[in-house]
UniProtKB/TrEMBL annotation:
Example GO biological process: defense response
Organism the protein comes from: Olea europaea subsp. europaea
InterPro entries: Defensin_plant (IPR008176), Knottins (IPR003614), Scorpion_toxin-like_sf (IPR036574)
Keyword ATP-binding: no
Localization per Swiss-Prot or TrEMBL: Secreted
Protein name according to UniProt: Defensin 1
Lineage, opening ranks: Eukaryota, Viridiplantae, Streptophyta, Embryophyta, Tracheophyta
Chain ranges of the Knottins-like domain: 29-77
Length: 77
Protein backbone atom coordinates (compact mmCIF):
# COMPACT_ATOMS: atom_id res chain seq x y z
CA UNK A 1 0.00 0.00 0.00
CA UNK A 2 2.77 2.48 0.93
CA UNK A 3 4.71 1.64 -2.24
CA UNK A 4 1.71 2.32 -4.47
CA UNK A 5 1.05 5.65 -2.72
CA UNK A 6 4.69 6.67 -3.13
CA UNK A 7 4.57 5.70 -6.80
CA UNK A 8 1.40 7.72 -7.37
CA UNK A 9 2.90 10.72 -5.57
CA UNK A 10 6.04 10.56 -7.75
CA UNK A 11 3.94 10.15 -10.88
CA UNK A 12 1.84 13.16 -9.91
CA UNK A 13 4.98 15.29 -9.32
CA UNK A 14 6.42 14.20 -12.66
CA UNK A 15 3.22 15.16 -14.49
CA UNK A 16 3.18 18.58 -12.82
CA UNK A 17 6.78 19.26 -13.83
CA UNK A 18 6.23 17.96 -17.37
CA UNK A 19 3.12 20.08 -17.92
CA UNK A 20 4.79 23.29 -16.71
CA UNK A 21 7.76 22.57 -18.95
CA UNK A 22 5.49 22.24 -21.96
CA UNK A 23 3.89 25.62 -21.30
CA UNK A 24 7.27 27.32 -21.40
CA UNK A 25 8.15 25.63 -24.68
CA UNK A 26 5.18 27.09 -26.58
CA UNK A 27 6.19 29.53 -29.32
CA UNK A 28 5.53 33.22 -28.90
CA UNK A 29 3.37 34.97 -31.48
CA UNK A 30 4.64 38.08 -33.28
CA UNK A 31 2.57 40.42 -35.43
CA UNK A 32 3.41 42.69 -38.33
CA UNK A 33 1.42 44.65 -40.88
CA UNK A 34 0.52 42.56 -43.92
CA UNK A 35 2.92 42.94 -46.85
CA UNK A 36 0.27 41.96 -49.41
CA UNK A 37 -2.86 43.79 -48.17
CA UNK A 38 -3.85 47.07 -49.84
CA UNK A 39 -6.47 49.55 -48.68
CA UNK A 40 -8.40 49.71 -45.43
CA UNK A 41 -9.08 46.49 -43.55
CA UNK A 42 -12.82 46.14 -43.03
CA UNK A 43 -13.43 42.39 -42.58
CA UNK A 44 -11.09 40.47 -40.29
CA UNK A 45 -12.05 37.17 -41.98
CA UNK A 46 -10.69 38.44 -45.33
CA UNK A 47 -7.47 39.61 -43.68
CA UNK A 48 -7.16 36.25 -41.92
CA UNK A 49 -7.52 34.34 -45.23
CA UNK A 50 -4.98 36.54 -46.99
CA UNK A 51 -2.42 36.24 -44.19
CA UNK A 52 -2.76 32.45 -44.16
CA UNK A 53 -2.81 31.92 -47.93
CA UNK A 54 -0.37 34.58 -49.17
CA UNK A 55 2.00 35.18 -46.27
CA UNK A 56 1.99 31.75 -44.57
CA UNK A 57 0.96 33.30 -41.26
CA UNK A 58 -0.92 31.51 -38.46
CA UNK A 59 -3.76 34.05 -38.73
CA UNK A 60 -4.57 37.69 -39.39
CA UNK A 61 -6.86 40.42 -38.09
CA UNK A 62 -7.88 44.02 -38.71
CA UNK A 63 -6.53 46.49 -36.14
CA UNK A 64 -6.56 50.25 -35.84
CA UNK A 65 -3.56 51.86 -37.49
CA UNK A 66 -3.38 55.63 -37.65
CA UNK A 67 -6.70 56.98 -38.88
CA UNK A 68 -8.15 53.69 -40.20
CA UNK A 69 -7.72 49.95 -39.89
CA UNK A 70 -4.92 47.80 -41.33
CA UNK A 71 -4.45 44.06 -41.78
CA UNK A 72 -1.95 42.52 -39.36
CA UNK A 73 -0.56 39.00 -39.74
CA UNK A 74 0.54 36.79 -36.83
CA UNK A 75 3.53 34.45 -36.99
CA UNK A 76 5.52 32.25 -34.63
CA UNK A 77 8.48 34.33 -33.44
Amino acid sequence: MAKSQAFLALLFCFLLIASSGMLMAEAKICSRPSKTWTGPCIKTENCNKQCKNWEEARNGACHRSGIGFACFCYFKC
